[in-house]
Amino acid sequence: MNRPMLSRLWKFLRNAAVAICGLAILVALLPSKARSQLGLDPCCAMMSVGLNSISGLLRSVVAKPLSSIQQNEQDSANYEQQVVFPMAAISQARGLAVQFQSQFVQMRQLFQLPISSATLRTPQLLEQSLLSGNPGAMPQITSNYSALYGTVMPPANAPQSVRNMVDMTDAEAQAAMKKAVEIDALADLELQAAEQMNEQLQSAAPGSAAILEAETSAWLVRANAYTQSAMAELVRVRSIELANSSGQLKFSASHASTLHTTGNQVLQPGVQ
Asked: For 202-251, what is the HEC assignment?
């Protein structure tokens, strides 16, 4: 119902009420002895005519617009219930949310199945840190890694170039392991957020669907960012592998050149 029409109707009803009250006051003030030839009080006749006139105006001027407004409101309500927010579709969506909740629980159970496989003590310590999903356990990765794979060899045991390559390889291996722990922790948070959103959908009002959709989109953006971070770490690991291969070729070429030079010196005449 629009406000201008309501305002006009209210003014009309207010004026009609004022007119009726004024007519009643006028009748009360007229002398009671004034009679018509038929014995009827002329004031009562005037009041009856006025009331009939007002009643006719209410039926013709007020009732029709009110009926039209009521019909428009009913049509709007039917459109919202049947097209915009149909109850059947809402009930079906909530049923799917309940079904998805049980699937989320199964996914979490599968996600948390133990996959550790190490049998010896030293590898088990490192494996426990890697599969913990706890960022607080990352400092233990360095010590467990060194205990399993060793540290950089001393200068007397290898050239400096070889020691540098070993140090860089160990550093990137540990960085990839720590990044994997971070991604596992983020995956746990994402699963919890998904379950909470699904629980909200089971009892959410139709009008709040847009808010939940915005929340879901925000979490999707975060998940994509985490995925990109994991992909970047994989790229770094692959880069280290390629760099090590290139370094091995360079070392081989350098050793071959040294061996060639030494061989020529040995084969020169006069060399004892």
From this structure: HHCCHHHHHHHHHHHHHHHHHHHHHHHHHHHHHHHHHHHHHHHHHHHHHH
